[in-house]
């Protein structure tokens, strides 16, 4: 049976996949990340997901992994034309949250699923976008949240699955996408992948 390799060190993505019945092996990608000049947020996450999947698949092939599926993802938050990636400091996180306060923003996740045996012919890539609306936040609320340390390793400076859930007025789209992986669509693709023996299928 083939294995599902997750090209990400994100514990949130691992948890989501396990909740859906998958058992991924974590093989973080070593591909360089970063936005190109003038690159749209959705285009950026799609490019990075493909890059991560390809880099991880190449390393696994060198190691002798002859079969399996590689799943890579990249998530970013966009407020207008501004991309809000992981904050560089507490002050940066405060500025991000102040920008999001009382407004809507978009969360984009690029996903690429690649078959180790057929990397060129059998790869699927897409972008999932969810709209998130924050209520107005006071300076005191922002300071208290930043003090928890939770925002510092998350795109946009917040985690919807954590304390920032209290900031969200509503969402339009896939909740899990905001956590870091559009689980419904990914689960559907993995379960329907054309190989009845694939270990990436849902455990029964």
Determine the strand fraction and express it as a percent band.
15-25%
Q: How many alpha or pi helices?
A: 6
Please give the number of β-strands. Answer: 7
Question: What is the count of structural domains?
Answer: 1
Helix/strand order: EHEHEEHEEHEHH
Mean pLDDT: 90
Low-confidence stretches: 196-204
> Given the helix and strand composition, which structural class is it?
alpha/beta
Query: What name is given to the CATH topology?
Result: Maf protein
Per CATH, which architecture?
A: Alpha-Beta Complex
Model description:
- This protein is α/β, with parallel strands linked by helices and 204 residues long.
- The protein has one domain (4-191): Maf protein (Alpha-Beta Complex), CATH 3.90.950.10.
- It has 6 helices and 7 strands, in the order E-H-E-H-E-E-H-E-E-H-E-H-H.
- The protein has helices at residues 11-19, 41-62, 90-100, 139-147, 175-179, 183-191, and strands at 4-6, 25-26, 69-79, 82-84, 104-115, 123-134, 168-172.
- Strand 3 (69-79) and strand 4 (82-84) form a beta hairpin.
- Residues 196-204 have low confidence and may be disordered.
């Amino acid at each position: 049976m083939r294995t599902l390799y997750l090209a990400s060190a994100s514990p949130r993505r691992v948890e989501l996949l396990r909740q859906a019945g998958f058992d991924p092996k974590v093989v973080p990608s070593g591909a360089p990340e970063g936005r190109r000049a003038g690159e749209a947020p959705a285009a950026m996450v799609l490019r990075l997901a493909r890059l991560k999947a390809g880099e991880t698949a190449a390393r696994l092939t060198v190691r002798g992994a002859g079969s399996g599926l590689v799943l890579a993802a990249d998530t970013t938050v966009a407020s207008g034309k501004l991309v809000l990636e992981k904050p560089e400091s507490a002050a940066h996180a405060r500025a991000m949250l102040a920008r999001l306060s009382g407004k809507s923003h978009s969360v984009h996740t690029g996903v690429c699923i690649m078959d180790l045996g057929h990397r060129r012919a059998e790869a699927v890539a897409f972008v999932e976008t969810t709209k998130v609306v924050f209520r107005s936040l006071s300076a005191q609320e922002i300071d208290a949240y930043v003090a928890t340390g939770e925002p510092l390793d998350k795109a946009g400076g917040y985690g919807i699955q954590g304390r920032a859930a209290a900031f969200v007025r509503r969402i339009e789209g896939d909740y899990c996408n905001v956590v870091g992986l559009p689980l419904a669509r990914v689960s559907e693709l993995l379960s329907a992948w054309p190989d009845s023996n694939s270990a990436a299928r849902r455990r029964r």
